[in-house]
Amino acid sequence: MFVIPEIFLTAFFQVLLEKVASGDLFNLALPEGIYSRLQTWTSKLELLEAVLSSAEEKQITEKPVNMWLQHLQDLAYDLDDLLDKLATEALRRKLMMAQPTQASNPSMFRKLFPACCSTNFSPRAVRFDFNISSEIDNITERLEDLLKQKSGLNLMSDNLGGTSSRRTGDERPPSTSLVDEYSGFYGREKDKQAILAQMCLGCESGSDRRFRVIPIVGMGGVGKTTLAQHIYNDEKVQNFFELKAWICVSDKFDELAITETIYKAISSESCEFKDLNMVQVKLRERISKKKYLLILDDVWNENYGKWDVLSRPFQAGAPGSTVIVTTRNDSVASIMRSVPDYYLDQLGNEEICSILAHHARGWQNFDAHPDFKEAGEAIAKKCKGLPLAAKSLGGLLRTKKSPNQWKDVLDSKIWDLPTENNDILPALRLSYQHLPSHLKRLFAYCSIFPKDYEFDKHDLVLLWMAEGFLRPSETHNEMEDVGFQCFDELSSRSFFQCSKTGAESRFVMHDLVNDLARQVAGRVCFRLDDKAESNVQDRDSLSKARHSSVICHQYDGSQRFEAFSRVRKLRTFLSLPVFRTYSWSFYLTNQVVYDLLPQLHFLRVLSLSGYNILQLPNAIGNLKHLRYLNLSGTQIEQLPESVSELYNLQTLLLQGCSQLTKLPTNTRNLINLRHLDIAGTEELQEMPLGLCKIASLQTLSKIVLGRGLKVNELRGLSNLRGALSIIGLQCVMDAQDAREANLTCKQGLEELEMVWSSDFDDSRNQMIEKEVIELLKPSTNLRRLEVKHYGVVEFPSWLGDPSFSQLAHISLSDCRHCTSLPSLGHLMSLKKLHISGIKGVKTVGNELCGLGWPHVGDAFPSLETLEFADMSQVAHAK
Hints:
eight-stranded parallel sheet, single chain, alpha/beta, seven-stranded parallel sheet, Helicase, Ruva Protein, domain 3, globular, Rossmann fold, 878 residues
């Protein structure tokens, strides 16, 4: 079955219009004589943008509209690439003007536009060559063609009224309160009893609140409605409540219509009034001082004002009245709940097997039917705990009489199942249709992740940022904060689920949600995994692909990457190692690294993480669009100097590069760099000067002092976040440098490691070290502190100050000259304290708890772990 992928361009067009109107582009285009040509794009883009809502709505049911949108999407990507090329040239010129000593080198100007340079060379003298002019003309012609085609598609402009925000064809069928007496109730009895207990607690608590709202939250198809039906029809509930009503709310939260439905349900009579006020008055009279149960099924409303209006009559009921809400969205629950949300997890495989067997054959399970058992249980696993999927597939299997037919279903992709017999993806797609346009794009991008792939929240946000999906908002100036907000919103809508490993930042997508992402992404994204032949899909459409991921193999030869020869406009090349640690590397042939990758000129994301790469070609510097470069876990010893010419680079990840010895000399030229992760690079003994000029830097996992680099390089990095390790503090010869580092004002730093040399020789100056550590006082937002090889008899005065109220972990190791421990008992959040190798301490007493405490037992209120090691001089502890 051919499935039309959805094209979502509204958010993309907003970004394009911003770029065309940017001041930097104006400063470049005006002297080059192309400004007027670029300005014509603005009016054409605005005309196209005006009909996008109508086109995006019609595309599923009208194939010509979808094809028109596909051409428009291709054009949008090409236009964005050209604008980015122009913006990069503007940025390069700006940087060269700021560094006149480099401006005299004409080769630096010829790299982007090699045929455009005159003999009398200067930044202003650069003229764009025929290719650039040709690209501009090509974009203009394509814009005009699409505008002509638009007129024949009957698309409405937004300013002419537009259409509804969601396609009626994707609406969920209305639910009822009646349960299927013959379907069974599998795996939810515990959930049912838990909610019944909440309802009873609400009745007996004596609270002043007249009614209690209990939200049942979970992803589409997990069984929220079925659970609510069984609660609604439970015998205890029947006897407890005087009035009951079931309302299927669904997409349109109409206060009048919902109030009318409630009134009709509890009174068994029609309401003659069509005025909200009169209907609410009648409802209030009917439920006054009576105990009621209302089920509001499938709620999507996030407007608190609407809920506030709807709920006013509910306050007239008797104590113990209850409203149960089913929703997929945390945000919906948050505006309605009066008790914590009840999250509904997926069912276990045994329960899913029972549901599948019942709906397919009327069986209790497959135990007595060995011919169907293997395929049946395998199909049940595909459902990944969703009762709706099991029910839907079971209904499909009712017409399949032989085990071989069941195996055919097993081998079929979920989205290839006949739509008339399959309501899995339509049910999940409803959640997708409710997303704002910018979130649709972010979700579809996640289709590059394989099924069951565990990804990190922070990594995904950096990828979104590199692709240009994130823009500063009214509430968040930093793109990362916008990204985390978007991630949390998608997570709250059940698109992402917390990993079972328990890691706080690790998430996965349910298999069927992954299928949905691939469906809506269509040809824009593809994955090269163990089933590359089926995943690459139509080979002819590969030329339109923009984002890809590669599952790393132990040996990846050039033959495996043949498909990439047809994706010259690729923006994403993302390696995904099978193993999370870097103790195992995957071999990637040099032909891919040296021949293929440099030909992908439009790359914004390049990850070779985990591959056993020793070096990169100098041609990597020609990837001018690159924003994200991940070489973590590789065996690379140093980066080509050309990396410092990647002026757009935002993220450079070198974590676990155990052989890395140096960074490019001109790293300071990476003026857009925001994240530099060099953790786990033990061989990195020196760092380039000028890091303080990268004002946008947020992540700098460590800084290695010495060989000219001073600690005051940190002075301009006011945006630092997360963890920072300062290595080689014995090299600080002037305490004023520590003052200039200004750590106190770096509010985003949460983890700090201070490391001196492990050699306690005569070159160490205790007076300077004491002053340095005092002046390196961090922000009180610090959560973790480690001090290693400090060589003074006493710790700094700020260590133990109660103002460090968030400090949860302290490690003091090999500070062998210290003769007393700091007073740490006042630190209210301290959970873990590790002290080792402080051989000058002979007694551990109350001073550790803090002087002035009336009761020593009141010290360390949050401490969970206390470790002492290698304290050979301690005679006793009090």
